[in-house]
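Meet my pick.
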Amino acid sequence: MIHKEMSDIQWNTVASHLPKPAKTGRPRCNDRNTINGILFVLTTGCRWADMPDRYGSKSTAHLRFSGLRQKGIWKRILSGLIKSAHRQGKISLQKISVDSSSIPSKKGGTKQDMTGSRRSWAQKYTSQHTGLPIPIRASPANVHDNTKFIDVLENIPGPAGDGLIRQIISVYADKGYDAVYIRD
């Protein structure tokens, strides 16, 4: 996949969600370079060690990525971007698809998360008709898809109070979502 660095407009959107630098201690590396480095690794799929030097220290980028994930900042950025796209009319929910994918849990999980001999999570997501993935929920992989269907539709991110579920005309899903209560 080809990586494009953030435009000024995109950067301003992302920067508004980042925590303020500490007033004391060592000054933080350039946020824009570091975030562009993180996005480079995520979009190209390369290892952190293969990140180009122009984005700064590889360990700084990895630590910043992990810290922002732990603080829930990536989720806030994604939610803000999705809400902005809704307001601008760039996302249409008239036709969506719903699916899930299983992700191995590298550092273990609880007993209820186990599926067979592996521990994993299933990421439930929707996608608008243009293919833009809109992540919704993570659940243990041993929870059947159709039990989370309503939860997925009710939690599509967007502007508050919009009644997004009422915009949906068609839902495309595989047979994992085939249940009488869903078809009705």
Q: What stands out?
A: Residues 74 and 164 are 22 Å apart (CA to CA). Residues 111-122 have pLDDT under 50 and may be disordered.
